[in-house]
Design brief:
The protein is mostly helical. It has 1 helix and no strands. The longest helix is centred in the middle third of the chain and has 80 residues, at 2-81. The chain is rod-shaped and about 170 Å long. The termini are far apart.
């Protein structure tokens, strides 16, 4: 009897092992599918982040260029208009003297 119970235990063990093996294969296939989906999602998010970084860099560069242009414009305006201009004296008028004609003596 001892022999048949060992065979029964071995058979049950083999059956349980095959069921566990089948479940592990099923779990592994599900995990492979989920990991593939996760990888796709991560790549999509990475692409969105890269696009967002590029947009941010463009905006920052545009704002910096605009701020520099605005600063230069304001400084130019202030320097040209805030400092009173030195008044220049009007140049002396040019006077041209025409000699008077002398009366002719003897005619």
């Amino acid at each position: 009897m001892h022999r048949s119970s060992d065979n029964d235990i071995n058979a049950q063990s083999a059956t349980a092992e095959s069921r566990v093996e089948a479940r592990l294969v099923s779990i592994e296939s599900k995990m492979d599918v989920r990991f593939a989906e996760l990888k796709t999602d991560i790549e999509r998010v990475k692409a969105e982040v890269d696009r967002g970084n590029a947009d941010t860099i463009k905006w920052v560069a545009g704002i910096v260029i605009s701020a520099v242009a605005l600063g230069l414009t304001v400084m130019t305006f202030v320097l040209n208009n805030a400092v009173p201009r030195a008044t220049t004296a009007a140049p002396a008028p040019i006077v041209i003297t025409i000699p008077s004609a002398e009366p002719a003596a003897g005619r």
